[in-house]
Amino acid sequence: MILYFSGTGNSLAIARKIAETIDDQVMPLNDAVLQDLTREKRIGFVFPTYDFNMPPAVRNLIPRLKINTASYVFAVTTCGAQAGNSLWTLRRLLRKKGIELAYAHKIRVPDNSAIAFGRNPNEQVWKFDKFANRLEQILDDIKAEQHEMHFAWWGPIGGLMGCSFLENGMLRTFHPVVNEDKCTGCGTCARICPMNNITLNAKAAIGDNCTICLGCVHVCPHQAIRINGREALKERQYRHPDIKLKDLIKR
Question: What's residue 249's pLDDT?
C-alpha cells in the first residue's frame, strides 16, 4: 500500500506511478490512520517537503498508523529543491514504532509554494523531464525492494526550521486568507482540503489547523485566496498535469 499526502497533486502522481510499477494501491494518509495495515507486506510513503521538513500534518499522522514491523517500508518525498530533514524525520518517527525505513529518496517537482513569492510554479515543469531518469531509478529500486538511504540525513537548516517558534511563524506567515470580495462560496477549497480545515457559510473560512499545502490557493476558480499577502493569479495556479481536480477531492 502506498500512503500519500498531496495538496496540488505532485505526491499523488508519484504515488500512482509507484503503485502502477509494483501493482499496488494508493491511499490518502488521512484514510490510512483509520485502517489496520498490519497485513500489508509493503508500505510506501509519498509526501511533500515543506520548509525543509515533512508537513506538520504528515508528522502527526505517522504515529497513528498500524503497520507490521516486518513490512518492507519505503519513502519518496517530493520537493522543489531540497528534501531537508523530511526523510530523516520519517525514519525517526518509524523507529519509535519499531519499524525500520528500508529505502528513501527524493524527486524534484514544480514548487507550488512559489506562488507565495509572486512566482509561477508552472514555469518549473521542466523538472519532469530533467528528473525523469531519477524517477525511473526510484521505481526500479522500489520494485526490487532495495535497501538504500538517499537524502535521509539530519541537516542544520532543517533542524533550525523545525524549531517550534520558527515553524509556527511560517505557519502564520503563509496561512491562506480568503478575500471575501471575490469568494462566491462555491466550496471547491473545502472539498479538497486534506485537513478538513475550511468551512462554508455564505463564504469560505479557513481555520487554524492549516498545514500550508496550498491546495486551496491553487484550486480556487475565482482566485479568492491570498497567500503571503499576494493575490493568487490564475496563470500562477498549479496542479500536477496528470492529476484532475476530482482526484484531489476528499473521499
Answer: 87
- What is the Cα Rg of the chain in Å? 18
Is it the case that residue 250 has pLDDT exceeding 80? no
Give the Å distances, CA to CA, from 46 to 16, 90, 111, 225.
10, 11, 16, 27
User: What are the distances in angstroms from CA 72 to CA 31, 69, 78, 138?
Assistant: 20, 9, 20, 15
Entry pTM: 0.94
CATH architecture of the domain covering 2-161: 3-Layer(aba) Sandwich (3.40)
- Expressed in percent and rounded to 5, the helix, strand and coil fractions of the chain are 40, 20, 45
Q: Does pLDDT of 158 surpass 80?
A: no
| Beta-bridge mates of residue 106 | 77
Q: What is the DSSP string of 102-156?
A: -EEEEEE---GGGGGGT--GGGGTHHHHHTHHHHHHHHHHHHTT--EESS-S--H
**Interior CA angle at 65 toward 32 and 147, to 5°?**
100
Q: Using CA of residue 89, residue 92, residue 95, residue 96, what is the dihedral sign? A: negative
What's the fold here for domain 171-248?
A: Alpha-Beta Plaits (3.30.70)
Q: Give the count of beta carbons closer than 10 Å to the beta carbon of residue 139.
A: 17
> Domain boundaries in the chain?
2-161, 171-248
